[in-house]
User: What shape does this take?
Amino acid sequence: MFAILGISPQQLFQQLLVGLINGSFYALLSLGLSVIFGMLNIVNFAHGALYMMGAFGAYFLLQVLGLNYWFALILSPLIVGALGALLERVLLRRLAGLDPLYSLLLTFGLALVIQGLFQNFFGASGLPYAIPSALAGGTNLGFMFLPIYRAWVILFSAIVCFLTWFLIEKTRLGAYLRAATENPTLVRAFGINVPRMITLTYAFGIGLAALAGVLAAPIYQVRPGMGADIISVVFAVVVIGGMGSILGSIVTGFALGVVEGLTKVFYPEASNTVVFVIMAFVLLIRPAGLFGRTA
Amino acid sequence: MSALSPTAPVMTAAHSGRDEKVAFVVMTVLLVVAPLAIYPFFLMQALCIALFACAFNLLVGYVGLLSFGHAMFLGLASYVSAHVAKVWGLDPGLAILAGTASSALLGIVTGALAIRRQGIYFAMITLALSQMIYFFCLEAPFTHGEDGIQSVPQGMLLRLFDLSNQTILYYFVLLVFLFGFLVIYRTINSPFGDILKAIRENEPRAISLGYRVDQYKLAAFVLSAGLAGLAGATKAIFAQNASLTDVQFAMSGEVVLMTLLGGMGTIYGPVVGAFIVVAMQQYLGQYLGEWVTVIQGSIFVVCVLLFRRGIVGEIAQFFKRSL
Assistant: This one.
């Protein structure tokens, strides 16, 4: 089969792997966007910038404090998430009740500020971040060479996505969250602190983005522009999946990463645009998105 | 949501249109004499970008559709216009028409897709589509990738007007701007414009009154795309180049900034916003470097939090005028 298509199996599996890696980032980012959208009813345009901050967080923790990858994996999302909570408390909350377009513009402005600051201090070029020694190297699977770190990223992202889904769909806390999404006033009447829940939800979504940033740091270089590069694809992923469903964003994220990887093998010219083309088709056939509910 | 729409009418008093006409005369006179005091290249740049912002404002200010990908219309038209003028060697007027038409066509396709969703989805869809056009412009052979199309001839307009003469060129660009501006002004103050505003204020109600909302939205979208294209096509002729800058996402963001700063849903707001932002880039760009992005972002935050009406909107509110 490979001979007919003129493509080596090595190349195919390599690109599939790259696709799954990118898919993990798409899934984590679009999951965060969905969670935030569900609770705050806003699109967080600063998501890419905060993903970038997650990667820089890992870099600083290593360079300044000497804390390795494993600490960064926990600390960086916590720190960036705390910053998210602050942003929500100080800025976004003031726009509650106004047209959601205002919060969109606010987060877009924040993204510019964050990205501009990092570009100022670190330039446009990338900073290297070494793969942690425990995950260095790779194994030969016979049909392809599998770098362990990449396998780790896919596995770990899948676990985090599953845990998030479980938390929201299957636990009591998740039930509160879903209830507050439907009717915040009523949930408040039951004595649940909805404003605090909103802050924590925003911080959680941001934390997921920062986590994706830490995971990405050893694969892609740590660059101020890394968030801006990925965010438009993530928005397309969100439009394709529809923001209503948690599972939907996870599945769409991984699937589109794979599709993008396969396009790199079969028709490299279109690999940058394939996700947008799929988005256009989905809009024609199912405007609400594959997993979305019509409003 | 309607009462808190981002573009809620600035004025509550009856709309006579007199203030707007006076302001139009003042603006035209200022722009006619401006080259005596200000570097014409800067003025032309600002005029093209101002027309671009006015076209963008037609959508966000009067239909309530926030496009985050309007650079695709500016950029595509400037490439087409530059190509027609340089490679085909046609009249600059034809080059500009070709650029405008190509953006209007792109507007039909992207608009038909984007208006299938509303609000924030509309913003994300337009962003994604413009990113697709960006990659197209990066890879298509006729755009010459990172180099862009350089040294585009300004040429003889209608074989009569030598556009390589700076004075003639300036007044030509000014005429294009005033033409685009008046098209938008007429559109807003027409029965068609009233229906657009009705859709902005309460879409379900407009539907229940029997209006085919999607067709109105698409028409406004195509008009906005075409006028943004007119701005881009003219820009390619006067600046003698077309590059990736005009099709990049940053440009889509800047036009949102200009309109927000000047005042969404005001007729003169985008013009004021565009002049401020272009001046900031032109005169402060060399000192500030990357700080420009930080400042632009801060302006967004400040505008959204403190004065959502924008500069012109606040002035209009203060003097109880319609601008």
